[in-house]
């Protein structure tokens, strides 16, 4: 039963063809099924114990004289979504579905994230970026919708140039947060995923949303083996991310030619998010158009709720 549920074909068909309300109902029903919950819980426990026992591989010794992190240079960008980065192939229509758990208040609840690379582009701080859309469900209800504006440089390094999140309760919008764009109010772009990561490279900036503090990352391992409900992978990049003042927030796992397959909380994590890959698909043109329409509406709404930030650059447009 676990193996049969891991692909979730019904979920993907629903995401492509039905309304958001139907998505919620289907996913709520999915989480209500005991075998899926048990399967996911078991997978999380096994994955955690596997890493602890060394299947993921102990951190390798640092390479001699690792190269310095690339610098942000506006002249070094072209097509923002060519798919050059081996650990996060940024191609419009690619969709990842990850499930696990999160802490809401004091309760641990089922958590599901659907991430889609859209064909909505926005020029930020002189760089053409593509919008990546996260749609999150907690206990089967919409909890967050967020946009991340990403771009590849000509070497394939993946940069993070802006973000926007809206929170929901009971299916209703309640607030916006984390609104930032590189070049506005002291915010600076950062590197999300390196094209040639090496153990031993100094920690690098993922982003600096404000002038006070930013997010940082550090390469923990390259070429690790890691298993999630979707399948096991043999060439996995493990990166630790967190605030500069509290860097041990989470481990992110990126499989070569696949993208992010896992998120494991660390000592400084507040919500203890666990997100394991259960499906990966390439959307049809019709489904991509539907998701991109939602993203355009969210992009426009950001100008209303965070005008001082998102009014600084032209709004997003579909390619």
- Largest sheet data: 14 strands, antiparallel
Oligomer: single chain
Distance between the termini: 41 Å
Overall SS class: alpha+beta
Order of helices and strands: HHHHEEEEEEEEEEEEEHHE
Helix content: 10-25%
Poorly predicted regions are 1-68
Rg for CA atoms: 19 Å
Shape: globular
Mean pLDDT: 84
- Report the portion of residues in β strands: 35-45%
Number of helices: 6
The total beta strand count reads 14
Description:
There is one protein chain. The chain is an alpha+beta fold. The protein contains six helices and 14 strands. Strands 1, 2, 3, 4, 5, 6, 7, 8, 9, 10, 11, 12, 13 and 14 form a 14-stranded antiparallel β-sheet that branches. β4 and β5 form a beta hairpin. The radius of gyration is 19 Å and the shape is globular. 42% of the residues are buried.
Task: Write a short abstract of this structure.
The chain has 319 residues and is α+β, with helices and mostly antiparallel strands.
Can you give keywords for this protein?
319 residues; alpha+beta; 6 helices; disordered N terminus
Secondary structure elements and their pairing?
Elements: H1 2-6, H2 9-17, H3 20-32, H4 34-53, E1 94-104, E2 107-124, E3 127-138, E4 141-152, E5 158-169, E6 172-181, E7 188-193, E8 204-208, E9 215-227, E10 232-243, E11 246-255, E12 259-265, E13 274-282, H5 285-305, H6 307-310, E14 317-318
Antiparallel strand pairs: 1-2, 1-13, 2-3, 2-14, 3-4, 4-5, 5-6, 5-7, 7-8, 8-9, 9-10, 10-11, 11-12
């Amino acid at each position: 039963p676990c193996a049969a549920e891991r692909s979730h074909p019904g979920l993907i068909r629903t995401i492509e063809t039905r309304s958001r309300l139907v998505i919620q109902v289907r996913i709520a029903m999915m989480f209500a099924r005991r075998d899926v919950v048990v399967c996911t819980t078991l997978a999380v426990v096994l994955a955690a114990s596997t890493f602890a026992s060394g299947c993921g591989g102990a951190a390798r010794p640092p390479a001699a004289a690792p190269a310095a992190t690339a610098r942000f240079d506006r002249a070094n960008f072209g097509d923002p979504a060519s798919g050059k980065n081996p650990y996060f192939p940024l191609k419009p229509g690619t969709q990842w579905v990850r499930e696990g758990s999160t802490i809401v208040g004091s309760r641990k609840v089922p958590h599901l994230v659907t991430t889609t690379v859209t064909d909505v582009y926005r020029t930020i701080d002189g760089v053409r970026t593509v919008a990546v859309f996260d749609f999150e469900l907690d206990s089967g209800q919409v909890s967050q919708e967020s946009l991340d504006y990403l771009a590849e440089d000509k070497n394939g390094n993946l940069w993070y140039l802006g973000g926007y999140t809206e929170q929901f309760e009971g299916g209703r919008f309640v607030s916006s947060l984390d609104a930032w764009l590189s070049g506005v109010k002291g915010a600076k772009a950062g590197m999300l995923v390196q094209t040639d990561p090496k153990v031993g490279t100094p920690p690098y900036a993922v982003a600096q949303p404000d002038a006070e503090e930013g997010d940082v990352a550090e390469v923990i391992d390259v070429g690790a083996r890691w298993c999630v409900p979707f399948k096991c992978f043999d060439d996995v990049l493990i990166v630790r991310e967190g605030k500069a003042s509290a860097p041990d927030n989470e481990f992110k796992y990126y499989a070569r030619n696949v993208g992010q397959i896992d998120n494991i909380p660390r000592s400084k994590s507040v919500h203890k998010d666990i997100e394991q890959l259960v499906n990966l698909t390439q959307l049809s043109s019709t489904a991509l158009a539907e998701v991109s329409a939602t993203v355009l509406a969210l992009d426009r709404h950001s100008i209303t709720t965070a005008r001082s930030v998102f009014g600084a650059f032209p709004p997003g447009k579909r390619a």
